[in-house]
Amino acid sequence: MPAGAAFELIEPSRAFNNLFIAYAKAFNKAYGRTGALFERPFKRIVVDSESYFSHLVGYVHRNSQKHGFVTDFRAWPYSSYAKLLSQKKTHLLRDDVMAWFGGRTAFEAVHQVDPQEALIESLIWEDWL
Question: Which of 16, 41, 63, 120 has the fewest CB atoms within 10 Å, measured from its CB?
Fold first, then answer.
């Protein structure tokens, strides 16, 4: 960035849109295909409460188990769950996440129960199909 240039903050929805477009272009190029990669448009819904956010975090972490990729979501290597609980260096804001949930014990407790999907059903992709 040139000296004196201001950093431009991009809205999260625009940033995700850019990410999906870039990913689709790279995927299409790598596999010699054209056209849309995703079936449905990206849908954005505001997370407007702390409870809603907490349920979403648990739902996302448990999703690999729900869809049968692993028998225990804690074994899924592509999740932030294990990294948040480890002591290894990370770019994740581990302390902030643990503080949000009220500590490690509370964070783990949220993940021990099945998420109440009724509270987050508007964000679950399967419900849009």
Answer: 41
